[in-house]
Design brief:
globular; 6-stranded mixed β-sheet; alpha/beta; 407 residues; two-stranded antiparallel ribbon; 8% strand; 46% helix
Length: 407
């Protein structure tokens, strides 16, 4: 064989391999990048997509074209099911534009991206205390709104000032190429085919985390394992000294600046906004208290209440679910065998059954079956915040005493 023919065969082999690689990765679609049909037992579960939500969700939302957005971190991703019966019919298609580990700044930028699609009429944004509490720079006179850069922000339609992002199409082309032609994608495609059990981690086509892997851990090891791990993480986080919720002495922060920009855009464009604080198991609340950050926690709620008061009450709802309540105060599972809590996977993540109760209260829809009609959340728009905080401290004493009379 001549050198020329050898090179021809070699190039043909490379082209055929690349074509086959692209077809295989597209059919399996391990990262939910290509909207390929999901076939049970083949590629239905997407275990390799769960750690790549920042890769595929910015593109997926353009395909779904939702009218309602769920925005936040992993808590609403696991707790609010876009397919729940507790949403109103008028809210149309719902997508969970939620990202585990993404801070408040990134969540607001993601919301801007969702709004830039042009179809969104309602945003439901979950607020998390841990995203507001961290070590701040000292001696800041005024908060600015930065235009941070990262691979994730390159995937968004607009920048921090809601201007067209010139890097979007380059990022999409790069991500599409990497998802089709790389060996990493090939290995993840094979892993996807292999890992199709009922306990495989997954994300639905509406961005929801059904927590199959959590269910499997509870079945095989017990809920106490999840609680022990998360409580250790929370104790470590809140043991850090010097964290606070404000950047300036006047009580303003980067997070409130982001909310301000988001809400003002929504009001100008007739888009409804619902804000809510994520619920925590009472053991989480006790860690905040024992670490000495309860005052900051209460100031966090005060600042949110003060913030929304400057807007029309009917356009912006603010709900508090970070409460001591019938749903959040229950025995913490231990290895000795206390049963799994009804409403929580572990201290920081609530189940969609609790999320349904939250939605039913927010939207006033009768969608809860069984004996679960005890009120849960408090709408802060119409509530005196100091009375609310006082009642919460009294509620804590009563519920914990009822939970453990010997304490």
């Amino acid at each position: 064989m001549t050198t020329k023919k050898y090179l021809h065969f070699y190039l043909l082999f490379i082209l055929l391999f690349a074509f086959s690689l692209a077809i295989f990765n597209t059919v399996v679609d391990p990262y939910l990048m290509f909207h390929t049909d999901r076939i049970a037992g083949f590629n239905d579960k997407k275990p390799r997509a769960v750690n790549r939500t920042q890769l595929y969700k910015p593109y997926e939302i353009l395909r779904v074209s939702p009218q309602t957005l769920i925005v936040g971190n992993s808590r609403p991703e696991m707790g609010l099911n876009p397919q729940s019966e507790c949403w109103l019919d008028s809210q149309g298609k719902i997508y969970s534009l939620t990202f585990p580990g993404l801070g408040a700044y990134g969540q607001i930028r993601a919301a801007f991206h969702g709004l830039a699609t042009g179809n969104v009429r309602h945003i439901v944004l979950g607020l998390d205390f841990i995203d507001f509490l961290y070590k701040r720079k000292k001696n800041i006179a005024k908060v600015t709104w930065p235009d941070r850069q990262s691979d994730f922000f390159d995937r968004l339609l607009v920048d921090a000032r809601f201007q067209r992002n010139p890097d979007y199409w380059t990022a999409k082309a790069t991500d599409t190429f990497m998802s089709m032609f790389t060996l990493d994608a090939l290995f993840d495609s094979f892993y996807t085919i292999i890992d199709q059990s009922s306990s495989s981690p997954d994300r639905t086509s509406s961005g929801f985390n059904p927590a199959h892997d959590y269910t499997a851990i509870i079945q095989h090891e017990g809920a106490w394992v999840l609680f022990k791990q998360k409580m250790g993480e929370l104790e470590s986080h809140f043991s850090r000294p010097g964290m606070r919720i404000f950047d300036t002495k006047t009580g303003w922060s980067l997070e409130l600046e982001g909310l301000k920009r988001l809400i003002e855009y929504c009001l100008q464009n007739n888009i409804q906004v619902t804000l809510f604080t994520n619920p925590y198991h009472y053991s989480y609340l006790e860690i905040i208290r024992q670490a000495g950050y309860w005052k900051e926690f209460e100031n966090y709620k005060r600042s949110l209440k003060t913030f929304v008061e400057q807007y029309e009450k009917d356009r912006i709802q603010l709900w508090d679910f970070s409460l001591y309540s019938h749903y959040t105060v229950s025995l913490t599972p231990t290895k000795k065998g206390e049963r799994e809590p009804d409403w929580f996977w572990e201290p920081a993540h609530y189940k969609s059954t609790l999320g349904d109760i939250m939605l039913s209260e927010i939207f006033g829809k009768d969608c809860i079956y069984g004996n679960h009609n005890i009120p849960f959340g408090v709408r802060l728009n119409n509530t005196d915040i100091e009375t609310h905080l006082y009642k919460q401290n009294q509620q804590r004493i009563l519920l914990i005493k009822k939970l453990s009379p010997q304490s």
